[in-house]
């Protein structure tokens, strides 16, 4: 994924960086190197998800269990049965957020009778498809005032999934369990080849909340800080700070203290602060404050009208305080056009695209093709963790085929080639991370890579979303090696 789309057969890694890239034996002076023979496997740079909600996933209650790589209900049940070997009796196995009914062949989530094959309480709250539990989970939740139907379906509202998640957070979350969940989340997505996450924040709740996108935004990073101190990070984490100050309050009660008391891009190679986003908050006064202090800012757009408004505000700020060197971002952009791309590019902005596998309708995704051919900076994000999935392979499948996980065409003529889609998720994301030595296999860059279980460039379309990593390396550190490639 360098500028020439070079394909090589060997790399040499020392002190966390590529020091040799080429064909034939790559030689270097100095001490002997461990040799890993990948036997012809396809290797790509580590995936960079330039905006997701991994920190929310890392603060889930219970024994959080990733499940975006299973595609039938029996396979999901088998995943939970395998997980139960590590879970003490009576404790919950949970998948909260990044899972979708649409990913399963059955196009639904499992019901109580199916989940009863797992000998631990199970709780599933899907980004798309609802909330489910089994008999053990039903008994626990009903004892705490949660209404659960006979088939394990938990409805919404004060007595349903909102109450269920709140009570689980209140009773199951401790500093220790949060560290476990954070570690499990990073490790799971390393198995899918993600080596860098840029987190888009959460809606602030001082106390445990029933909102799936809610957390205490002043304490939720602690488990990841613990993993970093203990040198146990399985991926790089870049932290953005979400703010929602009202537009009519010029005092900016939360944003102003953040800008005064925090540092952007502060930390180390594994964990570092970023900018303000996924919401900037405070209306145009918030944008002015972010611009004055030289921070990156990001807001999301859900339709064409919101994108037009966001860009108009940024043009107004830019006329007063230049922002063209600050790499401001608009994400999602399901409605966007060439005029907006021209205008945002003119003031130095960039757009993140993705978030499509669970959408329904027609022409509801970003105009990938138009943007890829445009000079504006474009990168990939999943925005997964609460409202959609994180797996890059589910997202890339949609970007390439134009279809959602149910097989419906949602992108019109805006889909990309495999090479283009992968570039958006690797080399093209570095602009959004503000780190120019990530996302490609080149001498001097961080040695982040994923060894795939099949050739992304040649497998049939319907195998793209099934891809996993057999061997994941971050900064020269092996973070995923189930096959023991290194002996």
Task: Draw up the topology in text.
Layout: E1 10-14, E2 17-22, E3 43-45, E4 47-52, H1 54-57, E5 63-64, H2 73-83, E6 93-100, H3 112-115, E7 122-128, E8 130-133, H4 135-142, E9 153-154, H5 161-172, H6 175-190, E10 194-199, E11 203-204, E12 214-215, H7 222-229, E13 236-241, H8 255-261, E14 271-276, H9 283-293, E15 298-301, H10 304-320, E16 329-332, H11 338-346, E17 350-354, H12 368-372, E18 377-381, H13 392-401, H14 418-424, H15 430-433, E19 449-452, H16 461-464, E20 469-474, E21 477-480
Parallel strand pairs: 4-10, 5-6, 6-7, 10-13, 11-12, 13-14, 15-16, 16-17, 17-18
Antiparallel strand pairs: 1-2, 3-19, 7-8, 8-9, 19-20, 20-21
Please, what is the oligomeric state? Answer: single chain
Query: Main sheet, how many strands, which sense, barrel?
Result: 5 strands, mixed
Beta-strand fraction estimate: 15-25%
CATH topology title of the largest domain: TIM Barrel
* Poorly predicted regions: none
* Discrete helix count: 16
